[in-house]
């Protein structure tokens, strides 16, 4: 007759049901610990993969965007539309963000230390084009720069981030210089455009 093992906690041999229950509990504990170890291992693998990707991807300082040549862009625009366009100059240190024709408007956008200044030459538009662009605001005064009289728009509330603008006619075109900028910054771009605007006016049939 086989000798039965006495279980200390019970003070007697286990019954068949108790033995089965004990083995089932031990198996459950083993499976649980194995699942936890697998989870930890999977997490470590994921962390390792992320580290490899992060360390393996080259990083560095983004390249500066290519400089925009306003003279070249203006020549191409004038040839495309068959019409002379302004070639504005900005104070030293200002970056040119863009210079292109957009929807019948020749635009040059400058970036001073903060904000922006945009020169727009709307080709053959209605007289109220500038007011339409500025949300219907009427001029708040006039100002003369380099022999050209400009309508002045000192906006009480910014329109499309524009807080100040000046506009004048150039034959069938309307010239507007605007931006998130001070009046001095806008006017500094207008200074020197007098001869070009006069030439556009003379070329009008």
Descriptive overview:
The protein has 205 residues and is of the alpha+beta class. It is 37% helix and 29% strand. It folds into two domains: 10-56; 70-202, Protein Transport Mog1p, Chain A (3-Layer(aba) Sandwich). It is built from five helices and nine strands; from the N terminus they run ββααβββαββββαα. β6 and β7 form a beta hairpin. Keywords: Membrane, Transmembrane, Transmembrane helix.
Features of this protein?
205 residues, rod-shaped, Protein Transport Mog1p, Chain A, 7-stranded antiparallel β-sheet, two-stranded antiparallel sheet, 29% strand, alpha+beta
Describe what is shown at a glance.
This protein has 205 residues and is an alpha+beta fold. 37% of the residues lie in helices and 29% in strands.
Strand content: 25-35%
Radius of gyration: 38 Å
The total number of structural domains is: 2
Q: Write the CATH architecture name of the largest domain.
A: 3-Layer(aba) Sandwich
* CATH topology (fold) name of the largest domain: Protein Transport Mog1p, Chain A
Structural class: alpha+beta
Organism: Microbacterium dauci
Keywords: Membrane, Transmembrane, Transmembrane helix
Pfam family, one: DUF4245
Protein name: DUF4245 family protein
Indicate the topology.
Elements: E1 6-7, E2 12-13, H1 16-56, H2 70-81, E3 95-102, E4 105-111, E5 116-122, H3 129-133, E6 141-145, E7 148-159, E8 162-170, E9 173-180, H4 183-190, H5 194-202
Antiparallel strand pairs: 1-2, 3-4, 4-5, 5-9, 6-7, 7-8, 8-9
Transmembrane segments: 39-57
Pfam families: DUF4245
Protein name: DUF4245 family protein
